[in-house]
Design a protein that fits this description.
77 residues; mainly beta; 5-stranded antiparallel beta sheet
Length: 77
């Protein structure tokens, strides 16, 4: 399954309307970029963990703050 967002793509975290892997309140409305997905990609390819639907992404909000967020909580900037 193709990912909806690409590495380093700028995204905004929605403040509502998501259903899966809700982000913490302190990042709702924030912008960030899609971080490397190495662990998630490895787990899916190894079939240890089934591919999730909707997908989740690691989003780098700041240099020291990365959050795992469901795809339906994100929108392109």
């Amino acid at each position: 399954m193709q990912r909806k967002f690409s590495i380093s793509q700028q995204v905004r975290v929605k403040t509502s309307e998501g259903t899966y892997r809700e982000p913490p309140n302190d990042v709702k409305g924030a912008t960030g970029k899609i971080a490397e997905q190495c662990i998630a990609d490895w787990l899916e390819k190894s079939e240890i963990v089934p591919m999730e639907e909707p997908r989740s992404y690691y989003v780098e909000i700041s240099e020291n703050h990365t959050v795992l967020i469901g795809e339906d909580w994100l929108e392109p900037v």
